[in-house]
Specification:
This protein is of the alpha/beta class. It has 5 helices and 8 strands. A 6-stranded mixed β-sheet has the order 2-1-3-8-4-7, sandwiched between helices. Strands 5-6 form a two-stranded antiparallel ribbon. The longest helix has 19 residues.
Length: 214
């Protein structure tokens, strides 16, 4: 079987919170897959996993690295970029359809950057980019076993934490990058483990990646 190449990322500590669920999932997913009873039947291969610093510069540095190390060097088999980020107010996993060209922080990010209602890239005339993955189809399939829903707004105007704004920045830039290289990108908002436990989320990631890689 020709397995689809996947690049995963989560986010690190922010605002003094050192235990980010998305980074925990990224740190444990490969070990979990290795113990999966149907590992040989999975349709994907994870070729890289990273935990991104919660800052504008952290996101830009990460995506520049992915472009240099993977997208520019790949030919026919372009990897898919899948990003996970936590939202403490969520009760479901949310598959984000758009990345919006807006940054508006209520406080400094981890590098002391604080944009105020300004475009992520003022030279880009697009107000948003849309994933080419079939969001509704994925939600319909995954909702049989998981709490998952589609979303059209990853947090332009939500200011309960800068993590959501960094997620927005990452989603916009990643979708733009995927369009440039004719590949696919997706941002997934996840809730705290008090809402959906870690093992369920690890299984959700496997089934999501398998569905994407069909």
């Amino acid at each position: 079987m020709n397995k689809k190449k996947i690049i995963l990322s989560g986010f690190g500590s922010f605002c003094g919170v050192s235990d980010n669920p998305s980074s925990q999932l990224m740190n444990e997913i490969k070990t979990y897959i290795n113990s999966h009873p149907n590992k040989s039947e999975l349709r994907f291969e994870i070729i890289d996993i990273n935990v991104i610093k919660v800052s504008g510069n952290g996101v830009k540095d990460y995506l520049n690295q992915m472009e240099t190390n993977f997208l520019k060097t790949s030919k026919d088999d372009m990897p898919i970029l899948i990003h996970f980020g936590v939202s403490s107010s969520e009760t479901n996993n949310r598959l984000e359809r758009y990345g919006w060209n807006m940054a508006d922080f209520r406080c400094d990010d981890e590098d002391m950057w604080k944009p105020q209602n300004e475009p992520i890239d003022s030279k880009d005339s697009s107000d948003k980019y849309e994933t080419t993955l079939p969001i509704n189809e994925l939600v319909e399939k995954l909702s049989n076993n998981y709490k998952v829903a589609p979303s059209i707004d990853p947090g332009r105007f939500i200011v309960d934490s800068n993590t959501k704004i960094i997620i927005l920045l990452n989603s916009f830039l990643s979708l733009r990058l995927s369009k440039l290289y004719n590949t696919k990108s997706l941002f997934v908002h996840i809730p705290l483990f008090s809402m959906i436990d870690k093992n369920t989320q690890l299984n959700f990631i496997i089934d999501l990646l398998n569905s994407i890689s069909k």
